[in-house]
Design a protein that fits this description.
The protein has 145 residues and is α/β, with parallel strands linked by helices. It has one domain: Rossmann fold. The chain is 56% helix and 14% strand. The chain contains seven helices and five strands. The chain has a five-stranded parallel sheet. Helix 7 (127-135) links the parallel strand 4 and strand 5. The longest helix has 16 residues, at 42-57. It is globular, with a radius of gyration of 15 Å. The N and C termini lie far apart (36 Å).
């Protein structure tokens, strides 16, 4: 049987739940263990680096734990992408959905990638992005409560 691997687009809310314990962490960890392709964009990485760096600057965690967060980010099952969402898609989606800039960017990036990977699913714990993703016929990996 020729079974296709899952393709999971991780936004920053999903990746942060993987790195930091919250109500979505169990789902994020379970998805990270799932066989398939796990996609991280440079925007997701930048957003997560920003959070970790703020924690480091404010000394909210010991340096050793901060280093382990960076290590987890580097050693996870991720395939890192340097992608630019289609600008026409960005404009279309901006008119259709009242999203913040990063949410719009993630939605457009996922829609752009969906053209190459029709089986793509998005893993997000952001309500607005999940809502717009459903409206754009993107499959979600989990439900947001």
């Amino acid at each position: 049987m020729n079974e296709r691997l899952s393709v999971i687009y991780w936004d920053s809310s999903a990746l942060l739940s993987y790195l930091f314990k919250d109500k979505y962490s169990d789902v994020a960890i379970q998805k990270a263990r799932q066989k398939g392709v796990h996609l991280l964009t440079t925007l997701t990485i930048a957003e997560v680096y920003t959070v970790i760096s703020r924690i480091q600057r404010e000394r909210l965690l010991p340096e050793m734990l901060v280093d382990s967060l960076y290590d987890l980010l580097e050693s996870g099952p991720w395939s890192k992408l340097n992608i630019v969402p289609d600008s026409i898609e960005l404009r279309k989606l901006a008119r259709r959905w009242p999203l913040r800039g990063s949410e719009l960017w993630h939605l457009a990036a996922a829609k752009t990638l969906q053209q190459e990977f029709p089986e793509l699913m998005i893993l997000t714990f952001d309500r607005e992005l999940a809502w717009a993703s459903r409206g754009e016929k993107l499959r979600l990996c989990s439900t947001v409560q």
